[in-house]
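In the previous chapter we treated chains in isolation. Here, by contrast, the input contains two separate entities that must be folded as one system, with a combined length of 633 residues.
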Amino acid sequence: MSDSIIEMKNIQKHFGSVIALAGVSVDVKPGECHCLLGDNGAGKSTFIKTMSGVHKPTSGEIFFEGKPMKFDNPRDAMEAGIATVHQHLAMIPLMSVSRNFFMGNEPVKKVMGMNFLDQKKADEITMTEMRKMGINLRGPDQAVGTLSGGERQTVAIARAVHFGAKILILDEPTSALGVRQTANVLSTVHKVREQGIGVVFITHNVRHALAVGDRFTVLNRGQTLGTAKRGEIEYDELHDMMAGGEELAKLVPEMGKAAQ
Amino acid sequence: MTGSTKAGASDERIKEQSFVRKALIRPELGGIVGAIAVFTFFLLTAFDSGMFSAPGVMNWSMVSAQFMIIAVGACLLMIAGEFDLSVGSMIGFAGMMIAIFTITLGWPVWMAIVVTFAMCIAIGAVNGWIVVRTGLPSFIVTLAFLFILRGFTIFFPQLLERKTIIGGISDAAEGDWLAAIFGGKIGGSFFQMLGDAGIIGVFERGNRIGEPVVDGIPMLVVWALALVVFGHILLTRTRFGNWIFASGGDAEAARNSGVPVNKVKVLMFMFTAFCATVFATCQVMEFGSAGADRGLLKEFEAIIAVVIGGALLTGGYGSVIGAALGALIFGVVQQGLFFAGVESSLFRVFLGAILLGAVILNTYIRRLITGER
């Protein structure tokens, strides 16, 4: 498994008396889309926060490009090349796409010994990167507020890729999107993967996961229920695993009774 | 489907934007339209009143420059997502401190100015620090400082000098190098030349006979223009400017992207305090005195100028040039009403009306930018 970019082994995370993660192991290979599925409260968020340096694991090991690694804060993880695109995007609607794209990492040029914003460079890079992702902007000065939810996700993804992400964590990128917008985001994920970046795709929508995923790991109550490769697992099977199959199985006849 | 499909790279889902619509989403639009309207109005109604003669121009330029100085600070702070209601009190306080240091304590004027600047900028930092630390609205925090500073501005001179106006600063400032940077004039020889050439009027009699009626550009105006240029470049051409927009647009999103939001906000509070102190120092040097009631209501006038200039009260959007135009509109109208012989209390009616109009226009423009319905 040494070809993985990141390998997380037997990660446990306890918050006081609550065991949020009880030994989760996941690894991500370059150019792979690893889907992390689970219902609300399964531990998905805690797990990716551990991966991106927000939480420190209570126990367990993280290997980054084969070497053991400890992230003290999100900045460390970011510098190593782990980028997270959150559900709530780090985007400012009133600002232009190019200003958002470079927010916090603005290119500068020296004029008379002073640093000035290199707006031209920022605009050019933004347009090129967005075109690569299949979005034609009206112009780099178009406000992010005018973009659709899917396009905003794409800007955020393109930004992470441009700034050298090796692992891209997408936290429920499709949860609030319409059908067409979801398709756009999924195709963006595909393009990112082709560049050799490992994608961690968090979702509770099995259909979205199956559309782009190479491997699927299902979390339930802080534990891994197993990892399956594409083609080895069916929609129903994944869905039942996620929802805790037995509970649903019990529910179906009950609902049947109620309907009679 | 949305009509015009240009060949090539254009996307059929994107509507072509008309030129008008593009111009409309520039923050300066309101300011430009307002300035043109105001100048047209007074050119038509008050042209013969001397408003557009050299001394008349100097008159409203100086009033506008005063507004501009505080508007630049208020503008950058508002774009960074905060208000400072203590600006007016800060003006009174700073002026009074300069007076107390020079007259009561007998310090050289330059030292009084330097120490006052340091004190006021520190107070600005405290304002900002409290806001970012507690997460309280800056409205409340700076409202507290509005009263605290005004109280001290009245208390100190009464305690030390048993009066609320301290004069005699002109004599003390005579020949002081730093005082000249706030109270002097530049370009005297140029105006003398204009006077000699008959382009502007000269005094016909009295002890200043032969001197031009306008004998230089006051440093107040120079400060105003310098601050506008500085603020505009800072905001639109530097990384820090992007951080100002980001901090005001969405502080959380900005933090997630690595923008030091708290630092930006505190620095903007300090800059606002700096602008207020520049205003106060110029005023003290011009009048030669400091009064406890100086700067009253200036915080609101600054905010109105900024809003007329197209900034959003909620932060994240605005323009220093717009704010400067807002200040110009202010100065021209305030003095223009005087030249036109209109009752000056009507100026406040005008202020209220134009504020309301500007806010409504801005809200509409914001909807255009973000595509909200």
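Residues 179-194 of chain A form the longest helix (16 residues). Chain A has one domain: 6-94+143-259. Compare these points with the single-chain example from earlier in the chapter.
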